[in-house]
Amino acid sequence: MSDFLNKLSIKQQRVFNNLIKELPAFCEIVVTTKFVIEGRLRSTIIHYMRDWHLFFQYCVEHLEQFQGKKIKELTNEDINSITYDNLVYFEQWLLNDRNVVKSTQSRRRSAIKVLFNTLYKKNILKQDPTIQYDKLKINKQGIIALAPHEQVSLLDAIESGYGLTDKEKKSRTEFSIARDLALITLLLDTGLRIGEVYTLNRKNFNFDNMEISVLGKGAKVRTVVFSSDTKTSLLAYLKHPTRLSKQIIDKEAIFLNRDYDRLSIRGMQKIVKKYASAIGKYNITPHKLRSSAGLSLYEATGDIRVVAAQLGHEDISVTAKKYVDASKHKLHDAIRKRGSLR
């Protein structure tokens, strides 16, 4: 557990400590398993813990066998008494009393499945009631991604400051502009997850071969290729006089905050949101830039296996469904441009 805590930001440590004080003791086993053995992202584990806390809050307030107990007091015997019906009623409570949407319900169900499945594998649970879960049917929107000309506009906004507020313009420096340009170029070019970017160190980059060694989901390492545009923007940032002259707190970190420590995930999200809003794309997040990179790569190569390898998808069918469907408009455009057959 100490290894996990050492890798959290100060804010994450505060949230984690507050949650772990209130959660049952058996949750520590799940946290350790998911972080140390499976390499889940720290932010993901904290989201799990929040969902577990909500579930146990429901249990002590609504389940008869837990009346009068505090969440922290729940034992191995208590969690063994939870049935599939209890889980169903919990979801009904979410939908009726908490008014959650299907996507939130799905996320919380995943967190509960992780908890019960891990405890079952660790022989703390005699049986796992979540195996009876049916797959939730969610009406997903089509892929949201930036078109090529919008990607150019986004990068132009970073260099020029176009569309930013006066306050945002005043807070910019040559160094922060170089960093923001390198960060967003990297995201658009490689399709890296924001959590993967957060963990990047200098040693992960091979600028000669233009490759990055990335620690992805499930603690699996993959090689991601980047272009000359990313190489140029990254080297310009890494060799910036300000960076070379300052005392860097985390010397291995690629992206730095204003205190010259490792830039947080939240910090990266704010940077993307700032420039996306500047060009009128208010729904763009780092994950949408990942989608933009995947779609651009698929439309350039037509090879879904290449896209899956670059993005780190284990199941190629997931990649195919997402990006082949999204690029169907290209087929319609091609047919229209072809014109009449006669």
Automatic annotation (TrEMBL):
GO terms for biological process: cell division; chromosome segregation; DNA integration; DNA recombination. Residues 141-336 form the Tyr recombinase domain. It holds the Pfam family Phage_integrase. Keywords: Cell cycle, Cell division, Chromosome partition, Cytoplasm, DNA integration, DNA recombination, DNA-binding. SUPFAM superfamilies: DNA breaking-rejoining enzymes. Residues 31-120 form the Core-binding (CB) domain. It comes from Desulfuribacillus alkaliarsenatis. It is found in: Cytoplasm. This is Integrase. GO terms for cellular component: cytoplasm. GO terms for molecular function: DNA binding.
